[in-house]
Amino acid sequence: MGVCVTGAAPVRAASPTPLDRVVPAPASVAPSGSPYRITRDTHIRVDDSRETRRVGEYLATVLRPSTGYRIPVTAHGGAGIRLRLAKGPYGAEGYRLDSGANGVTITAARAAGLFHGVQTLRQLLPAAVEKDSVQPGPWLVAGGTIKDTPRYGWRGAMLDVSRHFFTVDQVKRYVDQLALYKINKLHLHLSDDQGWRIAVDSWPRLATYGGSTQVGGGPGGYYTKADYKEIVRYASSRYLEVVPEIDMPGHTNAALASYAELNCDGVAPPLYTGTEVGFSSLCVGKDITYDFVDDVIGELAALTPGKYLHIGGDEAHSTSHEDYVKFMDRVQPLVAKYGKTVVGWHQLTGANPSRGAVAQYWGLDGTSAEEKAQVAKAAQNGTGIVLSPADRIYLDMKYTADTPLGLDWAGLVEVKRSYDWDPGNYLPGVPSSAVRGVEAPLWTETISKSADIEYMAFPRLAGVAELGWSPAATHDWEGYKDRLAAQGPRWEALGIGFYRSPQVPWPAG
Ligand code: TNX
Hints:
With 509 residues, the chain is an alpha/beta fold. It folds into two domains: 19-148, Chitobiase/beta-hexosaminidase domain 2-like (Chitobiase, domain 2, 2-Layer Sandwich), CATH 3.30.379; 154-494, Alpha-Beta Barrel (TIM Barrel). Helices cover 31% and strands 17% of the residues. It has helices at residues 50-67, 111-124, 168-180, 205-208, 225-237, 253-258, 287-303, 321-337, 369-380, 390-393, 415-419, 450-457, 460-469, 477-485, 487-494, and strands at residues 28-31, 36-38, 43-46, 73-74, 80-85, 95-100, 103-108, 139-141, 144-148, 154-160, 185-189, 191-192, 195-196, 241-248, 308-312, 341-345, 358-361, 384-387, 435-442. An eight-stranded parallel β-barrel has the order 10-11-14-15-16-17-18-19, surrounded by seven helices. A seven-stranded mixed sheet has the order 1-9-6-7-5-3-4, covered by helices on one side. Strands 2-8 form a two-stranded antiparallel sheet. The longest helix is centred in the N-terminal third of the chain and has 18 residues, at 50-67. The radius of gyration is 24 Å and the shape is globular. The protein binds ligand TNX. One of its GO terms (biological process) is carbohydrate metabolic process.
């Protein structure tokens, strides 16, 4: 190991990143043997399948600019890095990575596993690999074996595109960042009081009028069907499934403003650009309400290859309990009619969740025991639970009182607090088998550009990803904070402006 004697601090010759310095922590790691070095002769060898080749090309796109090497993707001969599909104990998303002097092989049963393995490989290389200009290297991958499968099948991030609209390119940028940490669901909050963001042919004013503003009164915007399909396509190329949400029966002012007939009194309210919640409701007693919901769900389901459709159901403070239950009893079958599985915020458990439904819990420590018990009862009766506790993983909560963006109604959420809990036993009475996973929502009342998204998401998102992916046995703040610190230079290389929490020992420089 060479030592540089000219500077004040000795600089060690590059040694490869240890195999366990990865976020989310891999399920098992066994270091052995010599590292592999990527050189100008390195090829990416892929099985002769379209999907494997696509993952290979994705990896090559990461490696080429910073290494300056050609890195051809080939089906035969010349190896170095190999991506192969094979039967084995990998599940739908797991992989195995073997590294030694002769090369690196990633093996998985499905392309999603290869893709996640590629994300691990990126983190084993120096952070400079993420830069878009040629860097000096050397490009070493430590020797040994990683075997890795996720703890949960639902590892989500939600983006509220209603309070502030985000363009297709902005959504794609976030998708790329989510993919780094093996997040596999992109939940889009497509409608709320302040804006309707998806074109619906049978009710065109929803988008053209209901989408014409946002919080603070800006111009808003909406996705055409082609835009939405492009988001779905791009997300799926990064192995994320889009879960679209139309929030009902509350949070519907944009729809009510667009069509007078949806209001009980037949009068359309004005568009809304403030940040209050809980003042709007679809008219539960009118039949046209269900024609409307049927049309919207039908068109959205047709655009969505994923399994789920989120119907909101939170903060319906202007809907009586009786009406809420009636509404959900009529709307859930419409989701099934179009072949989708219902997801709702956990208030849905106060109605009659349909068979196979998933409830997204967004309570906090202070949520009443009754409300928690209601969620637990639904879970015992077969409702799946996705955990998004607001005082842990709401990415719009401020880190500290000084955080310039975000809200604080659920408290201040520093990095340690967002990481240090266990989804497996978080809610009393919820069987661990009912827990489908975790999801980090980002509400955007105060968030209006990509830099804002990134400052609130990073570093907390990485911790959520680890909670969703890594076995409970790997969970340890002391170890995590060091692995997290190593992500800092990567985010710098990628141009992600993150919050430099004093709880994390970021490397100097
Ligand atoms: C609660 S969480 C809401 C949203 C707000 C958010 C702000 C949930 C299901 N509803 O309408 O945007 O708080 O943090």
